[in-house]
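Sat 14:20. Reprocessing the chain from the morning session after the first attempt stalled halfway. Input below, unchanged.
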Amino acid sequence: MAAKVFLASSNRGKLTEFRALAKDSLVLLELELLPGFDSLPPFEETAPTFAENSLGKALYYSRLTLDAVIADDSGLTVPSLGGRPGVHSARYAGPDATSAQRMEKLLGEMNGQEGKERAAYFVCALSIARQNRALAVITARTDGEILQEQRGAGGFGYDPIFYFPPLDKAFAELTAEEKNQHSHRGKAFRRLLAVLSDML
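Finished this time. Tokens:
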């Protein structure tokens, strides 16, 4: 029998990625978005690290259901910008900014930077909790570079400006299978699945 697990998010793109990864796993999961997520009092992501924000979010929302809750905090880190946008990736250009506005701000800040200065990496921290008790915290990263301009029409967030050298593509140019294989979120979720079989 599949274990029901809720994702503390309203992002259907993330749900689709996680479901595709879970389908290839030995762990039977019924993965759904947490009902009414957008109408719930939001968790304030004020911690300085992805892992702390992820775990805090999982614990916070796990009090609202008897089932396990997965929460992620992920974002883009650019060392030459002092680690920005980092944990502020989703709010980098303001709380109501679009992905296009966030990318525009980042490209503007990196104007004139070349070579190693454009190195960047995506980080994903995934936490799972049940009834305010932490079960696991997993982190993963994928290294790449910031492009000079957007490429590709897939993905979401910063994917169109994140270049992945091993495949010579922007993340927004990857197929769903390629992204699940190489992305920070895919790596973290596979690691999480590996430890879930003894927990659920």
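The first helix runs from residue 12 to 23.
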